[in-house]
Specification:
146 residues; alpha+beta; Ribosomal protein L11, N-terminal domain; Arc Repressor Mutant, subunit A; 2 domains; three-stranded antiparallel beta sheet; elongated
Length: 146
């Protein structure tokens, strides 16, 4: 008689994959292949679920692999650092953020990023989320202007 209830989780795989750009090449193929997951099936379903997100934008994904080699996955929001770099129009953050500022964003841009990231942030309200994103900006050498 088959066991009813939850399947046993064998592994969690955390990856950052460009939206709509999952393919069997590294890092996706080797990470899933070593757990016996159907790579093509994952790529099709991931690309289908991320087609509304801007193409090429890195998206964190957590894949749960079960003992019967089936899987499911949760797509998180794009990391704040990537969104801040895009908003400020810079290639990368500052190596010395205290002394060298590399760009600036407006408070309105920070609020938009905070709203987009709200579900993944450890914040009770929008003000707290804005403070978290502002702190990330400061640590990258990006000035937040009022």
């Amino acid at each position: 008689m088959a066991k009813k209830g939850k399947k046993e989780i064998e592994a969690y795989i955390k990856l950052q994959i460009p939206a709509g750009g999952a393919n069997p090449s590294p890092p996706v193929g080797p990470a899933l292949g070593q757990h016996g997951v159907n790579i093509q099936e994952f790529c099709k379903s991931f690309n289908g679920r991320t087609e509304k997100i801007e193409k090429g934008m890195k998206v964190p994904v957590i894949i749960s692999v079960y003992s019967d080699k089936s899987f499911d996955f949760v797509i998180k929001t794009t990391p704040a650092a990537i969104l801040l770099r895009k908003a400020a129009g810079i290639e990368k953050g500052s190596a010395t953020p205290n002394s060298v500022k590399v760009g600036s964003v407006t408070l309105q841009q920070v609020e938009e990023i905070a709203k987009a990231k709200m579900e993944d942030l450890n914040a009770n309200n929008l003000d707290a989320a804005v403070k978290i994103i502002s702190g990330s900006a400061r640590s990258m050498g990006i000035t937040v202007e009022n």
